[in-house]
Amino acid sequence: MARILITSALPYINGIKHLGNLVGSQLPSDAYARYMRLRGHEVMFICATDEHGTPAELAAAKADKPVAEFCADMWQVQKDIADGFRLSFDYFGRSSSERNREITQHLAAALGHAGLIEEVSEKQVYSHADGRYLPDRYIEGTCPNCGSENARGDQCENCTKQLDPTDLINPRSAISGSTDLEIRETKHLYLKQSVMRDQLDAWIDRQVGWPVLTTSIAKKWLHDGDGLRDRGITRDLDWGVPVQFDGAPWSGMEGKVFYVWFDAPIEYISATAEWADANGQTDAAWESWWRTDKGADNVHYVQFMGKDNVPFHTLSFPATLMGSGEPWKLVDFIKSYNWLTYEGGKFSTSAGRGIFMNQALEIMPSDYWRWWLLSNAPESSDSDFTWESFQGGVNKDLADVLGNFVSRVTKFCRSKFGEIVPEGGKYGEAETAVTAEIAKRLTAYQTHMEAIELRKATVELRAIWVAGNEYLQTAAPWSVYKQDPEAAAATIRFALNLIRLYGVLSAPFIPDASARILAAMGAADAAWPDDLDVALNAMPVGQAFEVPEVLFAKISDERRVELEAQFAGG
Ligand SMILES: [Zn+2]
Prior knowledge:
By secondary structure, this protein is an alpha/beta fold. Helices cover 47% and strands 14% of the residues. It is built from 19 helices and 16 strands. The structure holds zinc ion. Zinc ion binds next to loops.
């Protein structure tokens, strides 16, 4: 048994995420966590909301709520949606927690004592009307390059030129529109990542089998241009982890908070501490996952994220942990995802284009989304969501292949033999052949799950369902029954055992259907089939079962057209 720590990238607090966000970290990490638990490993699966920063403050102001209250409310919204998608986090924390404040301040102090933090004076734009410093992207004005009147302080979207706020002509606050701006001198802390470049580079080189998508992004940041740059880790904001605290190895940082990108990944650790607190456990319980001097040396740590998060997870967060000089557990494998597009374009919150997580659950059961998203996960390149493809995945894979098999077998058995596993007849070549086919597919399925190639794993799982259908089609118990009821009984007995097996194997991807299948089959457990022959005899003669209600309802063409129109946006 291994100990596996799994973290999903933290969803930002300011709004409900779309399906692309879901498939970029939370959903695949859940399938992996479920699989690893089924294989008997000890799993700690952690996620949380990322709550600090300017967008949270602005979203709270827009909702006319204090930011702490806004975040608490949105955490509950995101938690309920995560539950709706059956995301099986051991703990879903909050980066605004007391634990994250403690651990973030602790790590910052350790970095300060190690000489890895530098105070830098810089010029920043202060808005009198807003009563706050403005982050670069919240300053707008005329682009000095192309004349666009809506250039932002970090970039002009019209001509793509990178800008500094002081480059803008007639700058104004993007929040209030005020032009009453002043450039002020302010002090910030920088993490001296540049001095850790060789250490980080060597650490990346030691990682075996990481996806090219992950290492190429890290290498680019390490080596392009002047190489890895120091990073500002503080901001002039109210909402965040205070920079000035008892024992801080710097002074004069009153009123500043750590930059959200500094404290957010630390929340992976803090949320595990929150888990311990919530479950009446001591610090030793969470430290055994995170401190290599306290048991984490035998932990295998896997992170899931969209590709935009890779630089922070391959460089900044490891720099924080390594630089502290303390024995923190570093990630062993980073699984990163490309983008999911919507009908050939981008998801857009403002245009109402694409499907958001709350809407998805209102339209269809979570299993439908889980199956389509994971069997089309953007693992090696971007994927495109289309309603036609979604309809195909639900109707063909789930309804026609798996659902139909379960329905035909259980209904036929009920009508001819009753709702118990029938006796009579013997297994022969057909059963041996399909068992061999499934054994081969199962090995491949397991290999892909271990490698976190989930899309490939779904191909094998589907092939395992198909093998049962083909077996049933060939054995044709409905026609054999008339001359040889015992032979038909043997076929049905084997097929009922296949259904139970499908219930077990499908659990990482479609947990609700899986639970219904197992309950209908009266399965005492959902143990992984380490011995396939044993697993295919788990339902003995005489065992009662029930015919389940329709497992998957098909999506009609009319409904599909309706949904296409509903989510087209514009
Ligand atoms: Zn421009």
